[in-house]
Amino acid sequence: MVLGIDLGTSNTVASSLSRDGSPVLIPDAYNKDVQITPSIALIEGKKAYAGNFAENLFESLPDKQIISFFKRSFGTQDPVYFDDYKNAWFSETVASLIIKKVKHDAELYLPDGFKQAVITVPAHYNDVQRKSVIEAARLADLELSAIIEEPVAAALFYCNYNKKIDEEIILIYDFGGGTFDLTLITKTGNQLNVIAKDGVTKLGGKEFDEIVHNSIRESYQKSFGCSFPEDRLTANRIQRIAENIKIELNDAEIPKNISKWIMVGRDAFEATFEYDVYAQKANQLIIKTEIAVNRCLRSLGMQFSDINKIVLIGGTSSSKLVYNFWKQKVSPQQDLVYHQPLSSVAKGAAL
Questions:
Q1: What is the arithmetic mean of pLDDT over 170-175?
Q2: Whose CA, among 53, 125, 214, 225, lies 20 to 30 Å from 163?
């Protein structure tokens, strides 16, 4: 048995095959209703916490930093955190905490256990970045049988689910929390062929969060006439608030402004988030993904109309703004589909 791990920038998901050969998600060991592990860690003294527990702990440890988006530092020598003992933590070490956590969940959940694992990586990762992922697995005492590119894993799962697909060109559009990936794939019979790939390393849900975060800062400064606090507790709280407001704006069935009362320290203020302003800035980010898509197609001498199916995966792809942007681009002959955008990569890794 092999464990498939989608080590994501925002969230990590693990999957394995059931006895009938279909992929199933690995739940949290202490909350079976949760199947996603936030890719965050928190260090306190000589103790390290990962995932959901770290996310819920920061309120009781106000001077501690939530370590997130460490995946963006893979392949660099840049520390992502310094602990109380002035020790540098690198992305590989923090990633190993997340991997250990999902490994522990899988060991408790799978009756037959597992021997090896497959971990996914963004399609545009270079060799150094891929070696960082391999090193993180080694630090977590996890034996790897392979690493596989995230869009390829999603394509494996999608095509396994839709066996009738044949002689088609498929665009896997993977817009996640921290990176954007695209891969063009052809399917002939049971054969999948990657014909081109592209992406943007630092483009994802984090940039959508920052639109909201900047709006919160501006509202605070207008309300109190002073600069925004820079302490760690405030940063951790605002990070979570911004993400929740972003999700609310992204998921709005009917575009509308949102007003929220926000507490920073002892100061309470009302912030209004104008949907049209947010949508305009969000669309500027989505256009960057379109540029990458067109660049990839040009490298093959192809046009957008040559694509048969566009498969949207990744958390940011779930935004209605992303879906509506591409809905206006596709022709009636092209399919624009969601296929389990948050879990397809992990399930493909298990397959």
A1: 95
A2: 125
